[in-house]
Design goal:
1 helix; 7-stranded mixed beta sheet; 4-stranded antiparallel beta sheet; globular; about 130 residues; mainly beta
Length: about 130
C-alpha cells in the first residue's frame, strides 16, 4: 500500500490543524493505520492509531501526550486517514508520518508498520 501525507504547516499554539493521508494500492480498510511523529534529534514516536474495522471494530489508541487533543479517523470509502489536531502546543512540532500495519489489533510499535508515507511538517509557534 502506498501512502501520501499532507496538511502540515505553520500554526499558532492553541490552534488546530488537520492532517490527511491518502492510501492506494491495496484495500486500505484491512490495515491498521497510524500516525507517528519525529522531532529534530529525537526518535520517531507514536501519536495515534486505528485498527481495521474488520479485525478490531476500528478501535483507537493515543499517546498520552495527545489524548484529548488529537483525533484519528479514517474514511475507508475514500481510502484516507485523518488526524485532527486541536489545541496544539509547541512540543507538537515535528514531521508527522502516516503508516499502515497488517496487525490485527491497534499497535503503537514502529516496527509493526511496514508501510510509511513521506511525512509532513507541522510547526507550532508560541
Amino acid at each position: 500500500v502506498q501512502l501520501q501525507a499532507c496538511g502540515g504547516g505553520l500554526v499558532q499554539a492553541g490552534g488546530s490543524l488537520r492532517l490527511s493521508c491518502a492510501a492506494s494500492g491495496r484495500t486500505f480498510s484491512r490495515y491498521t493505520a497510524g500516525w507517528f511523529r519525529q522531532a529534530p534529534g529525537k526518535e520517531r514516536e507514536f501519536v495515534a492509531a486505528t485498527a481495521a474495522i474488520s479485525w478490531s471494530g476500528g478501535s483507537t489508541a493515543y499517546a498520552s501526550s495527545v489524548k484529548g487533543r488529537f483525533t484519528i479517523s479514517r474514511d475507508n470509502g475514500k481510502n484516507t486517514l485523518y488526524l485532527q489536531m486541536n489545541n496544539v502546543k509547541t512540543e507538537d512540532t515535528a514531521v508527522y508520518y502516516c503508516a499502515a500495519s497488517a496487525s490485527f489489533t491497534v499497535t503503537d510499535r514502529v516496527e509493526r508498520y511496514a508501510y510509511w508515507g513521506q511525512g509532513t511538517q507541522v510547526t507550532v509557534s508560541s
